[in-house]
Design goal:
Elements lengths: L1 E2 L4 H4 L16 E3 L1 E3 L9 H8 L11 E2 L9 H16 L12 E5 L23 E4 L9 E4 L1 H4 L4 E6 L5 H9 L17 E6 L1 H4 L12
Parallel strand pairs: 1-2, 1-5, 2-4, 5-8, 8-9
Antiparallel strand pairs: 3-7, 6-7
The structure holds ligand LXAUTJHC.
GO molecular function: 6-phosphogluconolactonase activity
Keywords: Hydrolase
InterPro entries: 6-phosphogluconolactonase_DevB, 6PGL, Glc/Gal-6P_isomerase, NagB/RpiA_transferase-like
Length: about 220
């Protein structure tokens, strides 16, 4: 699976203590990463490590952070993360893109997902698996991110969006996909599935038919 950072991290607490999950079978990649050392407060790896990975028995070799020795060279950083994906998926898939079982996504209050921001040229990247930006409108400016070809080839993509600050963008994402917000562009190719896990505050303006699901 691949996981995002941000507010999603705390929602993963529900997995702790789950007796059904076979943690030793998991491999964890990062949907996007801020180009900072892995122990920096801004690092998505640091966040997910703190909130989830340090609390469950996932073998450390199954966790795939960016190579922190390459923070000064964004091209090299992306190439090395693509190679990490190639190595992991080499014996499993013949597809042109890695096919994750699950990609967990968040949505920013501006409708961005991963490090794919509104009106950014990366929204139309169709070739690379992992790409960099150095002009993120949200700090820190330098990041690497999965591109849509990777995200949209997953078996399952699941967004988690909570709180009133996500209300407007959830409405636009689901009810006005023609506006092309980054979060609207997540459309897994057949037979992939897309789920949205939202709370009442985030969903208050949404017209899209909902299937309430209580954990
Ligand atoms: O910068 C980022 O933001 C998004 C959304 O974060 P949220 O805190 O508004 O939920 C996150 O999904 C992404 O991984 C992260 O790098």
């Amino acid at each position: 699976m691949a996981v995002s950072g941000g507010s999603l991290a705390k929602q993963l607490h529900g997995l702790l203590g789950n007796k059904v999950v076979r943690w030793d079978k998991w491999h964890v990649f990062f949907v996007d990463e801020r180009v900072v050392p892995l122990d920096n407060e801004d690092s998505n790896y640091h966040l997910i490590q703190t909130e989830l990975l340090s609390k469950v028995p996932i073998p450390s070799q199954n966790v795939h952070p960016i190579d922190a020795d390459l923070l000064d060279d964004l091209d090299e950083l992306c190439d090395s993360y693509e190679k990490e994906l190639i190595t992991e998926f080499a014996n499993r898939e013949t597809a042109r893109f890695p096919v994750f079982d699950l990609i967990l996504l968040g949505m920013g209050p501006d409708g961005h997902t991963a490090s794919l921001f509104p009106n950014h040229e990366l929204l139309t990247e169709s070739d690379r698996w992992v790409a960099w930006i150095d002009d993120s409108p949200k700090d820190p400016p330098a990041r690497i991110t999965f591109t849509y070809p990777v995200i949209n080839h997953a078996h399952k993509c699941a967004f988690v969006a909570t709180g009133v600050e996500k209300q407007e963008m959830l409405h636009v994402t689901l009810d006005q996909p023609e506006q092309g917000l980054p979060s609207s562009r997540v459309r897994p190719v057949q037979p992939g599935l897309l789920y949205w896990f939202v709370d009442d505050a985030a969903a208050a303006k949404t017209e899209y038919p909902q299937t309430p699901f209580k954990l």
